[in-house]
Amino acid sequence: MKEKKLLIIDDETLIVENLTELFESKSWLVSPANSGAEALKKISIFKPSVILCDINMPEMSGLELLAHLYLLGSVTPVILLSGYRDMEKMQKAWENSVFDFLDKPFNVDHLINVVDSALEYGEDYVTTSRLRNIRIKGKRIA
Questions:
Q1: DSSP alpha helix (H) spans, the chain
Q2: How many independent structural domains does the chain possess?
Q3: Residue from 122, 90, 101, 94 nearest 4 by CA
C-alpha cells in the first residue's frame, strides 16, 4: 500500500487548516502550503502521494504548478479545486494530466473519495494521460 501523504495548497489559511484536520483524521500525513512556490519547495522533501491544490492563487496558480510538475515528469496525481468553473482553465488542466477538478464548495465525502482514488489509481492515470497527450500532439504535428 502506498503511503498516504497529502500536500494541501491554498492561499486561504482556513481552508488549509480545515482540510489538514480532515485528512489527518483519516490517517493521512499532511503537509500544508499557502502558495505554489512554497509547495514546489516542499514537494521534493515531502514527496506527496497526492496533491490537492487551489487553482486561483497569487504568485503561482494551481495551473502553473500543474504545468511545472508536468514538465518535471512528475506522476504525482493533482486534484485542483476552484471556486468557479472556467472551461479554458479546465482544458489546460486536462492537457497537463490533472487527476480531477472539483468545484468549491465541495462535498467532503466526495473529496475524500477522490483523494483516496488518486492514491490508488493516480500515478497510472497520470502516466496514461501523458502518453495519450503525446500521441494526440504527435498526430497534430505530423
A1: 13-24, 36-46, 62-72, 87-95, 108-141
A2: 1
A3: 122
Measure the CA–CA gap between 134 and 83, rounded to whole angstroms. Answer: 30
**pLDDT 10s digits, 46-73:** 999 999 999 999 889 999 999 899 888 8
Between CA 88 and CA 109 the distance in angstroms is 27
CATH of the domain at 28: 3.40.50.2300
For residue 75, give its domain range: 5-141
How far apart are the C-alpha atoms of 104 and 24, rounded to whole Å?
A: 20
Q: 20-41: per-residue pLDDT in tens?
A: 999 999 999 999 999 999 999 9
